[in-house]
Amino acid sequence: MTRLLVTGAAGMLGRDLLDVLGGRPDLKATAATRAELDITEATAVQAAVAGHDVVINCAAWTDVDGAETHEDAATAVNGHAVAHLARACAETGARLIQISTDYVFPGDADYPYPEEAPTAPINAYGRGKLVGEQAVTRLLPDTGYVVRTAWLYGAHGPNFVATMLRLAEQRDHLDVVDDQQGQPTWSYALASRLVELADAALAGRAPAGVYHGTCAGRTTWYGLARAAFALRGLDPDRIRPTTSDRFPRPAPRPAYSVLGHHRWTAAGLTPLPDWHDTLRAAFASSAPPWKVS
């Protein structure tokens, strides 16, 4: 029986992964929450990885603005700790799937970033995540996988969709930025694809390297908010477009976070659907994205 270790198992993506894995009797999942495994501790990581065939690392410093003022601490989790995981996997022969981000790119493109595009992060969070990516590709050239995702929303944690629907109960109108483009991605749909990637990695069908795990299509935060309102039966015109300079934040955000998916399809893996389709599926699910638990 294949054994998988899911780190960061209490987070939004981690919990969805465990739900997906629960439907696979041929797979045995070990859930490691932050309280159970601090991935910055190399000895603890080595012990946790032992006996597993695949490690999917969902543990991360996710506070983008906090990383700007605590870059060393953020990079310790998002970068150096990934090297601990990679070394442990190298010792045991386990595959490592590392979750990364669109923020490794500068956001100045006008076409979807391919997996091999040059990286140039514009904030501390992106720099730390890039350190993690480099550790995987350096230490696990044949068994390491980096999956970049973006604009995640889901049932098990704070996210943009849940925030918009919560604010809808408090305000008549919401001003939402319309000058950042990206690909909203349902965490449960991504979790399903990560399990498919793990299967393919173990079977030797998916070459190691970087993959982009985002939904197809593109929109802005304004477009996503309007779509969420419409699906909830609210008036989308309550959402008003604005610009990023109206909401200054410590960490700069890329203006363009649209990713290409060539390597995903080249490996024979099922690409994520268009973001409209997955948003509808999320709203129709038993745990829609506004039910934050």
UniProtKB/TrEMBL annotation:
One of its GO terms (biological process) is dTDP-rhamnose biosynthetic process. Its EC number is 1.1.1.133. Pathway: Carbohydrate biosynthesis; dTDP-L-rhamnose biosynthesis. Pfam families: RmlD_sub_bind (PF04321). GO terms for molecular function: dTDP-4-dehydrorhamnose reductase activity. One of its GO terms (cellular component) is cytosol. The keyword Signal does not apply. CDD domains: dTDP_HR_like_SDR_e. SUPFAM superfamilies: NAD(P)-binding Rossmann-fold domains (SSF51735). Residues 3-284 form the RmlD-like substrate binding domain. Keywords: NADP, Oxidoreductase. It is an enzyme of class 1 (oxidoreductase). Catalyzes the reduction of dTDP-6-deoxy-L-lyxo-4-hexulose to yield dTDP-L-rhamnose. Belongs to the dTDP-4-dehydrorhamnose reductase family. This is dTDP-4-dehydrorhamnose reductase.
